[in-house]
Design a protein that fits this description.
Distance between the termini: 9 Å
Number of strands: 12
Strand order of the largest sheet: 8-7-6-9-10-11-12
Helix content: 25-40%
Shape: globular
Strand content: 5-15%
CATH class of the largest domain: Alpha Beta
CATH topology of the largest domain: Rossmann fold
Number of helices: 14
Bound molecules: 1,4-dihydronicotinamide adenine dinucleotide
Radius of gyration: 22 Å
Number of domains: 2
Structural class: alpha/beta
CATH architecture of the largest domain: 3-Layer(aba) Sandwich
CATH superfamily of the largest domain: NAD(P)-binding Rossmann-like Domain
Length: about 350
Amino acid sequence: MKGIKTEERKIRLAFFDTKPYDQENFDRYKDDYGVDIKYFPVKLSSDTARLASGYDAVCAFVNDEIDAAAADILYRERVELIALRCAGYNNVDLQAVWGRIHVVRVPAYSPHAVAEHAVALLLTLNRKIHKAYIRTREGNFALSGLAGFDLYGKTAGIIGTGQIGRIAAEIFRGFGMHVLASDPYPNEVWATEKGILYVPLDELFRKSDVISLHCPLTPETRYLVNERTLSIMKKDAMIINTGRGALIDTKALIHALKTNSLGGAALDVYEEEDKYFFEDHSSMVIKDDVLARLLTFPNVLITGHQAFFTQEALTAIATTTLENIRAFFLDGTLTNEICYRCTQKTCARKETGRCF
Ligand code: NAI
């Protein structure tokens, strides 16, 4: 780590894909952490990475694309730190940056925000609150078509029992649901204490009335929900995805919905979301036919990657990101570092406190 003396000057941060709420929250705290921020509205990619010239660090979000080409440019421009203001890091080619630029993230800003949104999606989709809202505003108080099902006594399947998945599982238990779980690293102590059962993934797909995705997007989890796994689910099962869009093969999902072999889907994330999400496209034609088709189904509910979006989470994102940056440039501390070897479980960070 080369680092700089923070007493001499403020740390210079190039901030990509800026939204008004980002600027508001980061401006509130940046002086406390000695960080000077240049806000760029554009996404970080190989086309825009040169904007980082002269900056010590870049700050990126979920749809910035730090592939090998972008990483090469950032390294050439002497950027020392990529500070992700999110938990997921599937948009960073960690192998390409390994040994050259450190990557830090915000491992948890509010797991409650995301878990609560997953449950809100399920309740809305199941009880058709979104339709009732529109009906009653127009003076239509008819109930036809609004019937849902009791959650009590049904089975929820949680895929990924990390911070978010565990909270979602506990909320579902609170409804009196049976909860099945799948995770390559099961937390048996927690499961026993909460009355939750780890089962093989196919069994979870077969037995669940509600399936909620909370695992990261990796080569292993890409298209976890696909033609085969959809075919073994209950015909009236509902899928909730607040994880990452490409956990689901969307074309296979559409086929299942068209053939009435799935109860419904509530999606906060979509595999091609970077072209649409976080922006207002209401006066334009949606050219993505898959997204457009999804939006036509009466049993599909889509939110635009807003599961994290609570005031508590925004505050935690700003303060943790700024602390990650301050600590690195002060004395090389990298508490929330993530690297290629971390993802391969071969990183020496546990022993040394650093990835490289
Ligand atoms: P975490 O790292 O605490 O938990 C992830 C869990 O998934 C771990 O227990 C891991 O062992 C498990 N897992 C890994 N591979 C798996 C597989 N093949 N099958 C089943 N489980 C598997 O992560 P956290 O904080 O719970 O977040 C989960 C995901 O939620 C993130 O990776 C991110 O993609 C997404 N997320 C979405 C947000 C939104 O606004 N929609 C906000 C924050 C996170």
